[in-house]
Amino acid sequence: MSLSLRRLKEKGNVRPTGIIEFPAPPDVRKAVWSIVNQAKTHEDKEFIYLEPDIAMKVKSRGFTKRGMIRLPVFQVFLFDVS
């Protein structure tokens, strides 16, 4: 399962900031799909769009020159985000 991280607003559009390619533990993946199925507004060939977004903490090795998160690794979901 790959998750696209999108949170950077640029000229009114939200663009991807990274891809989590390393899988989270099985119980976390199961929880993600449960939330995705409830929050899905639509999907295309590349993405599933959610409303509201799912917030999570990731560990990374900084940012690339293009502003993408370098090697993000899932840490924990953030449920109390204001």
In short:
The chain has 82 residues and is of the alpha+beta class.
What features would you describe in this structure?
It is a single chain. This protein is α+β, with helices and mostly antiparallel strands. The chain is built from one helix and six strands, in the order ββαββββ. The chain is globular and about 35 Å long. The model has no long low-confidence stretch (mean pLDDT 79).
Number of strands: 6
How would you sum up the major sheet?
2 strands, antiparallel
Overall shape: it is globular
Low-confidence sequence ranges:
none
Q: Could you spell the SSE succession in H and E letters?
A: EEHEEEE
Mean of residue pLDDT values = 79
Q: Radius of gyration, Cα only, in angstroms? A: 13 Å
The percent range for strand residues is 35-45%
Q: What structural class do you assign from the helix and strand content?
A: alpha+beta
Distance between the termini: 27 Å
Roughly what percent helix? 10-25%
The total of helices stands at 1
How is the largest sheet built, in terms of strand order?
Answer: 1-2
Helices, strands, pairings?
Blueprint (H helix, E strand, L loop, with lengths): L2 E8 L2 E8 L5 H14 E4 L4 E3 L5 E4 L13 E5 L5
Antiparallel strand pairs: 1-2, 3-4, 5-6
Which terms summarize this structure?
82 residues; alpha+beta; two-stranded antiparallel sheet; two-stranded antiparallel ribbon; 1 helix; 6 strands
